[in-house]
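job 3f2a | input accepted
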Amino acid sequence: MLGYWQHELRHFGERYWYWLRRQPGQWLRLLPQAIKETFNENTSLYAASLGYYTFISLFPLLLLSVALGSLWFDPLWAEGKITSQLDLVAPGLSEMLGQNLESIVNARGPISGLALILLMWAASNIFNVLVHSMDNVWGLEKGRNGWQRRGIALLMVMIFSALLLVGSTIEGFVVTIVNSLLPEELQELRPYTNQLWAASVSILLFAVLYRVLPHKKLTWRDVLPGAVVAALVWELLKRAFLTFIDVYLSRTNLVYGSVTTIIAFLTWTWASGIIFLFGAHLNVVYYKSRQKMRGEIGDRRLEIGD
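job 3f2a | predicted structure (306 res):
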């Protein structure tokens, strides 16, 4: 059984690498187009809106997740595990929050209901911004109605809270399995499986959002290029942001004081929004390129038939 999965993993890697080797010319044409489309006047506004609503929803989300986790686990253990998962979204979160984390855990009981209400409101607004931005990127005029957006927003809240709890418990298990499946020639990758796990989760997250959010029928093939590129750029940005926190955050405290953490977090969410929209624009230009190619092939077939 183990040999079968090793063979499948190797076969998938070979096929994907062969596909990538055939694409460089196309990507050299598509990337500049996507970058140009990304830096229009609406992108920065959407990214700033995402940053604001993410900041508003962060503490209710953490509080709600800890309250749910404390039903089965020790609250302090749940808080630590959930924060480590949130670090995948906002690097250095535990360092930036500092002693506020303990206060959140201690307050989980009396304000969990308030946190749920705030989280529903914030998640609905985040989803509205995401949907409007995706529909704008794809040039769609007709979107979902208000009740549909609210319902999907609440569903996303429950899914995300559950993923924080599940992801905090299965990460080590998944990494162990991946290490056991690696072929002999790839054993040197074992020290990097945690990073590979984080990148894989990011790719999956971006792909799901790119496929579900637009009011347009898309396939995984339509959204995978933007998801892969955006996730890899996002992972690089996280490394740079962690360096900034370690080196410059204490210095900026001298200028901005107690609001330094807020400014750093809003800057991070704004940059993440730009990357998210860049991946969406890349999917659009890739989709249009494929449609154009299909049209040209169809025209040639008609000419041959005539």
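job 3f2a | Residues 297-303 have pLDDT under 50 and may be disordered.
job 3f2a | closed
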